[in-house]
Amino acid sequence: MTYPVDLKWPYPIEYGNEAEVEADVLVLGGGIAGCWAAIAAAKDGAKVAIVEKGAVLGSGAGISCDHWQWAITDVPGVKITAEEFTNALMDNHGGYNNGITRYIQAREGYETLLELEEMGGKIRDTEDEFKGAPFRDEKSKFLFAYDYENNLVMRVWGITFKAALYKQLKKLGVKIYDRVMATGLLTKDGKQGEKVIGATGVNTRTGQFYIFKSKATVLCGARPQCIWTYATEYAGLTGARSPSSLGAAYALAWRAGAEFGMMERAIQLGNFTSISPAHGSGHNSNTWYPCNMVDAEGKKIPWVDRDGNVIEDIKDRSRPAPGQKFFLMGGGSSALPHPGILEYKGPRLKNVDEQLAAGEVSLPLYADLPSMSAHERRAIFGLMVGQEAKTKYTYVNYTKAGFDPDKDLLMSNQQLVGGGGYGTSSSGAKMVVGYPYVRNFSSGVVGGPMIDWNLRTTLEGLYAAGDGIMGGNDHGHAATTGRYAGKQAGKYVKDEKQVDVNRSQIDEEKARVYAPLKRSEGIGWKELLAGINKAMQMYCGDIKRDRLLNMGLMSLEDIKDVIESDIYADDPHSLTNILGIIDIHTAAEMIIHASLARKASSAFLHFKRAEYPETDPADWNKFVTITSTDGSVKVGERPFGYWGDIVKNYEVNRI
Length: 655
What we know:
Layout: E1 18-28, H1 32-43, E2 48-51, E3 67-69, H2 82-92, H3 99-119, E4 136-137, E5 142-145, E6 153-155, H4 161-171, E7 175-177, E8 180-187, E9 196-203, E10 209-219, H5 232-235, H6 248-256, E11 259-261, E12 267-270, E13 293-294, E14 303-304, H7 352-357, E15 366-367, H8 374-387, H9 391-400, E16 410-411, E17 430-431, E18 437-440, E19 448-449, E20 462-464, H10 475-492, H11 503-514, H12 525-539, E21 543-544, H13 546-565, H14 572-597, E22 608-609, E23 622-629, E24 632-639, H15 646-653
Parallel strand pairs: 1-2, 1-10, 2-7, 10-20, 21-22
Antiparallel strand pairs: 3-6, 4-5, 5-6, 8-9, 9-10, 11-19, 11-23, 12-18, 13-15, 14-17, 15-16, 23-24
């Protein structure tokens, strides 16, 4: 077959050519956390370079947002303290969260938003579009979401944020390296576990090799995706986050010897199983909260409060239940405080799949926007759907197709494939719906590198922030922790000198990076990923067994042999895809090792062990950690609350 266009590679090929870059602070990842880290360090006078596989202007796991979570301190209308909030959140997750970063987020969320506003981000209803709405503070013109009495979550115009951050990066003179994929961390004397002194990278268009020398490095890459499934024709997008997030930050830190925690928490992810995200039509705990849902016959799907009582009045969905001080919705997060996750204590109400089986509900389900008030309707479809990164396309395309929220119902993709439940583990109002499930390392709080009160990993010179740390979660978390880590790194480099890089380490990394180019045929990146996906599907599923997990490690070891002998690439694009899939392979190994290490089941971690069916036994209420050391995996542990007094330690360490 002949093609009417010239398909030659459009960029100059520079395999092997080296470019050296020196910076005080090196930021790996140009998403929300990365931009904030670079800005904070540069404002402190540091010479900063930021490295991004895509393009900083439009990259990241969550480049936009429709709501900003957990700004507590100094926010109009908030009646609780950051300490009270953080402690409740930790309790609600059974201890499996990050008290350090949650407290930072609660304490610094508001000042971060105000700084963003100075850069040009829109955080207020300046046009008075929602004047008089129950979720609007008339004095500040802030719009709030979910709990209208406590105002813990703000509605924002997130589409404006990335452009404002990019403009600030340019203004501060941050050196931006777009289309450069980080491949490895450089360490003192080239040894694992030693101080991090820079990184290596490869240009995704030219194949040029980069050597970045730095006094401090901040990891801001997203959590890995596509571990269990990738092919869109099977299950649509594999998560709320970008499928191009392949976990490079995890792989780099792991190979360098950083300690990781909670890597076994790969959850059953409901709702994100179609090319149009669930936010597009009826996600009951996020963008579409608190919209009515009806079945094909117009029957309303019930909403219940924390205690299981059916809520008849729509406005009561945005108020705490009697005796409940506050609650939180949004981002799929658990509401607060919760009466108990392990056992549902309210009246037993059938969820939708049970109602379907009984003939009480008829598919399909619909989002009933016309039944909502004008303010709620415009907030959901015009603001929330219009400002979240992925759902922006939902808003644009649905509008072009003629969808009118004032009169049209929208068919929901929450059609039952299995599972079912009470929405999130929320103690706010929840819709009694069933969910389709895809296993993924995606939604909510997940594992990652362990950090201290400086957001430093267990390796000197290496900081981490955003989505890709232990307890990483949402947009506000990425922004506040990125900003905090950038300040800490900027302070650290003031008294540091650049350590010489080890040439042997660089040469070994170059050989690894370019190895796939030495073959003219073999296994491509798609086949390699399919093999990893199949191994994880077969051996690391919902119910885990020692035998299966060990078979999974054996299968991944076989795939490693394929990586070393049979993978090939024929241009810089396929080369960087291959390198990304190798990072997924690394993440898959980490998940299995962590799963083997936890010898107990846990409802909070969505973790089931066949040999250890007891759920959350007291002696396993702790973080299980893993570290790569001299070719083996070291298993450790950290107690809940290892961060100590959150108020005291924050005050001592903040800048």
